Amino acid sequence: MARLTDFPLFLLLLAVCAGSDAQVPPSAEETARYSGLLAAAARGDAAQVKALISKGQKPDVRDAYRRTPLHVAAYGRHHDAMRALVGAGANPNALENDRYDIVTIAAVANDVPTLKLALELGCKPTNVTSRYDGTALIAAAHLGHAEIVRTLIRAGAPLDHLNNLGWTALIESIVLGDGGARHTDTLRALVEAGADILELGVPFSDPMADGPVIQRASDRALKHGVGLADVLRYVSSFREADKTTPVVLMGYANPIEAMGVENFIGAAKTAGVDGVIVVDYPPEECAEFSALAKKNEIDPIFLLAPTSTDERIDQVARIGSGFLYYVSLRGITGATHIDLGDVAARIPRIRAATRMPIGVGFGIRDADSARRVAADADAVVIGSRLIQEIEAGAADQAVSRVKAFLKPIREALDASFSR
Fold it and tell me: Which has fewest Cβ within 10 Å: 103, 172, 335, 342?
């Protein structure tokens, strides 16, 4: 496996639980009651579709469930009828009662040919669909439809879209309970799209260092029964397909203590974990934990804060490995009052005590703060601020907002890491 020090920039991801929303194709009884254009679409009769529209029938007529003929043809995989409908003016982005479009219909059905045709006909992979304000990519990731995921990513589907439960496509693919092989393949497709290192947050009932955004995610995971053992099973399943992408677990002491430290380290090694951040493990009390982790080729990663003394910095540098995580402010994730001058002053002191890379997180909110932090740090971590940027606008603006937000930050990091 690759070591954590091989990667200068970390993409942090949180595992939470998700649900799905079933689509409703027309039943046999409904189809039997269809007439006109809906009946022709259900049969896949492209010639009749063209004839009826030429006689004045509306291409976007609706049934009782507000399905259009194009929805009906997509459910039936009638490609010629779909082409005929869109060619005659049918709206390829129309939504039915449960707000599904033809791309999402194909994605949920794991129907790659119909998906490719739907995209060709003009249905947008960025459409916000379902009662959860999701996307076709989120639906496909949840179901483990790996080739659908790859196709949607190539077409420009957003990796960072948040549905109204606060979940992205990557979060959907992570939350499995049993870590099924289909979902492992799906996660690999998402990793190929740009994740350098995966950090999996272990759900805990009192995540004291986390702000409300991450706290809500942890609460949802616990309600769905996801715990430390589930996360480890998922890592093990992921490793069957990917033996190189570093995986770091971040969480709190209680779940580890409940499992037993030796049992946890053994299970983490077997699963393929590369690093562990235990927020409430002070370095002066966990030398044995750190030694055991290192013995099993797992990097114990520790947090440093603005209040850390020189003695604490030296302790962390001595017993930690992988990288050091400097918490750049006094507070929780998502806070805004970062003191950039203090960061610039503290990082050189930390660097003097260690050769490990230094990542900085908490309170970094724009290109200017990222650029100034990156002048001294090896990694800039942005989490809550990015989620807030997505939440601040309309769902269909998420991709453009995120790209506009991250572009100057990415440029600042690239310039810093190339020095």
Answer: 342
Examine the residue annotation and report whether 210 is marked as an active-site residue of this protein. Answer: yes
Angle between helices 146-154 and 136-143 (to 10 degrees): 150
3-state class of 278 per DSSP? strand
Lowest-confidence region among 28-32, 210-214, 278-282: 210-214
Look up residue 186 and give its amino acid.
Answer: T
Sign of CA dihedral 133, 135, 136, 139: negative
Residue 56: which residues within 8 A CB-CB, separation 6 or more?
none
pLDDT higher than 80, residue 221: no
Do the beta carbons of residue 90 and residue 49 sit within 8 Å? Answer: no
Topology (CATH) of 101-164: 1.25.40
Coil, strand, or helix at residue 277? Answer: strand
Q: Which one of 1.20.120.1200, 3.40.50.970, 3.40.50.2000, 3.20.20.70 gives the CATH number of domain 4-20+165-417?
A: 3.20.20.70
Q: Exposed, middle or buried, 194 (CB in 10 Å: 0-12/13-18/19+)?
A: exposed
Q: What is the band of 17 on the pLDDT scale with cuts at 50, 70, 90?
A: very low
Q: In the predicted model, what is the mean pLDDT of residues 161-187?
A: 53
Terminal alpha carbon distance of the chain: 27
Active-site residue, 199 included = yes
**Is residue 253 predicted with pLDDT exceeding 70?**
yes
Residue 403 in this model has a pLDDT that exceeds 70: no
Structure tokens at 369: 């703060």
Higher-confidence residue of 83 and 403: namely: 83
Determine the average pLDDT of the residues in 138-163: 84
Q: Which of 111, 199, 274, 299 is catalytic?
A: 199
> Cα Rg for the chain, rounded, in angstroms?
25
H-type helices in 175-328, by residue range?
A: 181-192, 212-223, 228-241, 253-259, 261-271, 287-295, 310-319
Q: Which of 210, 230, 299, 389 is catalytic?
A: 210
As a whole number of angstroms, the distance between CA 211 and CA 335 comes to 8
Phi/psi of residue 290, nearest 5 degrees: -65, -45
Q: Does the reported pTM lie above 0.90?
A: no
Domain parsing of the chain, residue ranges: 4-20+165-417, 28-97, 101-164
Architecture of domain 28-97: Alpha Horseshoe (1.25)
